[in-house]
């Protein structure tokens, strides 16, 4: 039994004694109770002291035991940690060696697989090249077969239409012949009747009567002649339009590519005006080095956030632009860096020019060009003639020549090749002496081009001396491309002079009241006096004005001559 239990027991006994004493009487009970109470208090005090001492001893023993257990646990944990670290160290060394061995084996396997993959890639590349060449050849053959079929179908349709027109024309001629015979008989009868009446009524001599009849007949025949000329011209115009649409109209409609005019100045934006000082450099050494390496004038003026590159050579100007933009992007501008960047820009320009040549050849459908010829062709991207980009013009001429050759049953591929290369001499005419025709002939012969291509280059300005039909087709395609509206620019003064010349030619004819050049010189509208020019004579006047314009003027495209004849009746109600 513990000390606390004893204390509780004593308290219970004290309470019981107190109750007992209350029953025995107040005095005896009080006395006995006080004695017992004193005794119980003393015992309780002693028991409490003993209990406190025992509790302190137990607490101290528990603390010592807990400290010993903690130290023992820490020692065991430290030993266990050391064992675990040693075991982990042994395992990591073994795993690291195993990982190195596996990594080396994997690298060797990867190297072998990479070599096999490289060899396989080479084989695949060669197979792709062969497949590409075969695909191009099949595509060209398929395209040629398709064009041949279309050409045969169109030729059959044209022959059928021509046969139908010939039959209609033959029937029309028979009808006209019968009508003319009937008119001739009617005229003879009418002439006889007129002579008889004149003899009877006027009493004129045969010579006088014949003269009057001939005058009247001349007037009637003049009117009839004008009407027949007008009808014949209308018929001829319709026939010519149908025939021309087979060769020219379709070719011209396909060509609507943009033209570009190369200027002599390129504007390069800069981040801020503070960059201008860095471009100039100390005592101007940077700008001098840049201009010496590129051959382009670098103009730095008050233009905000921009500098100018000036040169007549567009290739040099483009190299300078690329180099300057790279310098501005990098921020390091000094002579050695400028030399490095300019050399890099020149190499990039060679690649750019070659890509432009390849794109032009692909667009024109020309294959088999040698790399040197493709490089020269790409240089035409930076060449312009009368505001027309020469490379675009060459591709357009190739398309037109190919279309016309296909319509005429010639080799369309050869015609496209001749059209694409007809101005190849312009790529180096600024560096080599001679005309672009002479230079082009020399280049074509050097690269082994066919004689038809050489002949087209030599005579695309004078097809009358050409030896092959391809030169004639290229000359026609060249004229179509150059004369197309918008292809070439002309100055405002030349434009106004051309409009004034058109109006002056129209006003020089008798019977013309006024004339206006409209639609940017594509049409001349002529107002005639109705009392002097009849409807039939208006057709002859339009033809004469058009012939005069063709003879005396140079102009792009065509000029439409419209003759307007109207009669007005004006009256005033008063």
TrEMBL record:
SMART domains: HDc, KH. The keyword RNA-binding applies. GO terms for biological process: mRNA catabolic process. CDD domains: HDc, KH-I_RNaseY. GO terms for cellular component: plasma membrane. InterPro entries: HD/PDEase_dom, HD_domain, HDIG_dom, KH_dom, KH_dom_type_1, KH_dom_type_1_sf, Ribonuclease_Y, RNase_Y_N. SUPFAM superfamilies: Eukaryotic type KH-domain (KH-domain type I) (SSF54791), HD-domain/PDEase-like (SSF109604). One of its GO terms (molecular function) is hydrolase activity. Residues 390-483 form the HD domain. Residues 23-255 form a coiled coil. Keywords: Coiled coil, Endonuclease, Hydrolase, Membrane, Nuclease, RNA-binding. Pfam families: HD, KH_1, RNase_Y_N. Its EC number is 3.1.-.-. It comes from the Bacteria. NCBIfam families: HDIG (TIGR00277), PRK12705.1-1 (NF009344), RNase_Y (TIGR03319). Endoribonuclease that initiates mRNA decay. Belongs to the RNase Y family. This is Ribonuclease Y. It comes from Thermus parvatiensis.
